[in-house]
Amino acid sequence: MTQITLPSLIDCHVHFREPGLTHKADMASESVAAVAGGVVTVCEMPNTIPPVVTVEALADKVRRADRIQTCDIRFFMGATEKKHLLALRDVWRGASPTLKDIKRRCCGLKVFFDHSTGNQGADFETIAEAFRMCGELGIPLVAHCEDAEMNANAQASVLRSGRSRSSATEDIALHSQMRPPESEVAAIKRAIGLAREYSTQFHVAHLSTAGGLQLVREAKKEGLSVTCEVAPHHLFLTVDDYQTLGALGKMNPPLRSKEDQAALWEGIADGTVDCIATDHAPHTLEEKQCEDPLRAPSGVPGVETMLPLLLTVAAGGWPNPRGEKVANCKLQIANIIRLCFENPNRIFGLGKQKDELQIQIDVDKEWTIEAENLHSKCKWTPYEGWRVRGSVVD
Hints:
By secondary structure, the chain is an alpha/beta fold. The chain has helices spanning 27-36, 55-65, 82-93, 97-104, 124-137, 148-159, 165-169, 174-178, 181-198, 210-222, 232-236, 242-245, 258-269, 285-288, 306-314, 333-347, and strands at residues 3-7, 9-14, 39-44, 72-78, 106-112, 141-144, 202-204, 226-230, 275-276, 358-368, 387-392.
């Protein structure tokens, strides 16, 4: 057995579903899953019930997270209206011990250019004000970048394309057509323009397209404070996997082409990609396997499987048994540390030290991903049956 030591990893994009959606997941169950996958710090998103758009809702999440001793859970606030931005400003400028404590647990603002799970999409006036205020106060701003109008037009076009409604809903691959690559590119371009105008520290969530990556690459060359993350499901899955996964492969932004997948790996190699984050978003199997797959909720679990997938590539392998290895797919242990610890720690000011809490990894262990052995409450995975290498040593 060959063991290596890694800093405890950071997943800067998760949905632990508490409060309001605990039939899917909760902080306790998903923290166990995270730690089993070597992830000891997570940044949790605001689209729960109620959404985290008020000081009270953020304080409630902090109280709930205080029960969890094994995983450090930080939180993004959200905003769909300008009044929500005032709540964030109160947190950031607050002088009371309570506000200072919840600010310490708040890693920034999350805005949605279009609706996703939780319908947190904001109008452009609110988004622009968010960029302005975050630039003024030095608050990291994360955006889900899909253009709402382009998505609506694409969906209408697909449904007018000659298919009956019943036949259209049988083809889950239409989901990728309804949220096309051009939508992400347009939203990222607009967001970078706002970041430039207001000197905002801007982070692109779950970037999935070659075009979007190129915009980030150019923004970095310009010297803008623009960073991005990619998700394991966009690194290891493509539209070809819909045939096997069905609605279990449905997420926002959706699965993309092999060309987009290859571009993301190139972005890792040249340093354009700053973080790998899972967008861990569990739903129940019953919800995913509904009669109309296009109405199934978007999102897949992934916090427990990220590290073994990456370690498999670092060992020279490719975990997806259904697809060929991406030609420019290369990864070293140092890259995993950079993408899953150093960069998210720096970008979101998490204050973690490399030797604060370390994890031991058996890099020789080969095993098969099986949902029944994973710890997320949802008990399914899009990577069922995949052979991977590397495991956290208890």
